[in-house]
Amino acid sequence: MSPSQIIVLATPVFFVLIAIEYAIGLKRRHNTYRLDDAITSIGLGMLSQISAVFTRLLRVGIYTAVYSVVAIWPDHPFWTTWVGWLTALVFYDFCYYWLHRAGHESAIFWAAHVVHHQSQDYNLSTALRQTSSGALLGWVFYLPMAIAGVPPLVFGVVALIDLLYQFWVHTEQVKKLGWFDRWFCSPSNHRVHHAVNDRYLDRNYGGILIVWDRLFGSFKEEDEVCVYGTRKPLNSWNPLWANTEVYWSLLKDSWHTRSWADKLRVWFKPPGWRPADVAARFPSPTFDLTQVQRYAPPMSRGVQVFAAAQFALLLAGVAGFLWFADGWPLAHNAVVFGVLLVSLWAIGAVMEGRLSMLEALLVQAAALSTATAALGLVDLHRVFKPLTMVMAMAVVLARTEAAQRRNLGSVLLLGALALSLAGDVFLMFPGYFLPGLVAFLLAHLAYIALFRQDIPWFPSRRALAATLGIGLAMYLFLWQGGLPNALRVPVAIYVGVIALMAAQAIGRATVLRNSAAVGVALGAGFFMLSDALLAVNRFVMPLPMSQVWVLTTYYAAQVLIVRHIRMGAILRPRIGPSLP
């Protein structure tokens, strides 16, 4: 049984304990749970586990390779005795202490570990909040075990034991435990570790044993109320941003500093250290414990129900993925991972108010359409592909006032989406390529007319020349690659129309100069890319994972246009989640 399958079997136990902690909190009038924070924490835990499928080579493969080459006592029977198992567990916990300490004392390690500390709540769901990038460098700290000859199987088991032990210490409902606190990592000791109070900062790193902290001077007893989170709050439910925020900050500081030494030093100095020139040009606000506020964007009851239901479905999907992933090809796993990641991101965006519920369903339907095509699930693909365009039209109708739906702009947008739907249906069946091409040609003509509503024709001559030049180069490439004679004229017309559509959208962005117009122009660019990939795959040479690239860029185009098209009163949004 793989570690991923063990985690799946342990998951019901985790949720039972979370439910018990929640009930105790309600009874004591000290509830430590919020729906949005708990969904984000558990979601980051799910993301960590599914990404571990791809980083197992780093976590176990390198360990095994080092063990097989340089182990001092390989295959020694000692490690399979109960004393050997216990020694290996203590050895692992010792290595974990130093990895954990590095995670707080070196910026590059903090960039991975910060995910576990971002929650401003402290409960059992926080225990599941884990990084997806920790394996990239964390394996280094366990090499002493490989050199000493701890077998990979023993290493894997004690690692799992150490991880599972740490689940129960993430609670405020268990107070101090007397003698136990002096020897072991306990809820009291670990609350200190998660606190941002000055006196608690960077203390109590032990995983199972707190003895390491007492030996190496990093222990602090809990003696005042803990405030949780990080000193630079995440203020987001976005799982991608949660995993990348510190990396991005370090990258910016490294880019902006003038000192070549500081460009490297910024990655290894303690978290919060910044080059003097960067700190002067881009000062950070001073942390004030008294000014800490919980991130809590408002959520309606409907959004709460939607997020909870979506999360339950996603949890089932992740459990299925983890159970079967070890037997699937890497490409198969990558496709399913992409769907789960997009779905998790969409839930967070809804809870933040950045996406409406219909927009989230649109994004998820697009992801499922792409995945079912890539995995060869034909019957499901024939459901999700048309459903995606139906959802796109639903988004437009939902945010448009009834009186505005007959305006030319609304008619053009809905018409473009309906024609795209027709093109999608035609292209799903063999022998209907030409009708599909005609449907998309008409859709692009509708988009050109739509983008013309509030600006002149092709206001940017540079954009017009560039898109027509790209279209001409692509057409010549297809001609040389074996474009059938019967399709040369239709494809030429199609290439010209889509180039004009992109030119009109880009020109519109140069006139309006706002983020919405730029989003539409970017969508038009994705349309050109998607059609180019489709044509190359069909007429020149097969592309690896072609369905993924073609459909991902196609849906990116449609979603960007639907989400960002803003033309005065033509598509006036209803009251609801703000749309930038």
UniProtKB/TrEMBL annotation:
Keyword set, alphabetical order: Lipid metabolism, Membrane, Oxidoreductase, Transmembrane, Transmembrane helix
Pfam families found in the cross-reference section: FA_hydroxylase, YhhN
Membrane topology of this protein: Multi-pass membrane protein
InterPro entries according to UniProt: Fatty_acid_hydroxylase (IPR006694), Sterol_desaturase/TMEM195 (IPR051689), TMEM86B-like (IPR012506)
Fatty acid hydroxylase domain boundaries: 85-218
Major location (coarse): membrane
Family to which this protein belongs: Belongs to the TMEM86 family.
Protein name, as recorded: Sterol desaturase/sphingolipid hydroxylase (Fatty acid hydroxylase superfamily)/uncharacterized membrane protein YhhN
Organism, as annotated: Hydrogenophaga palleronii
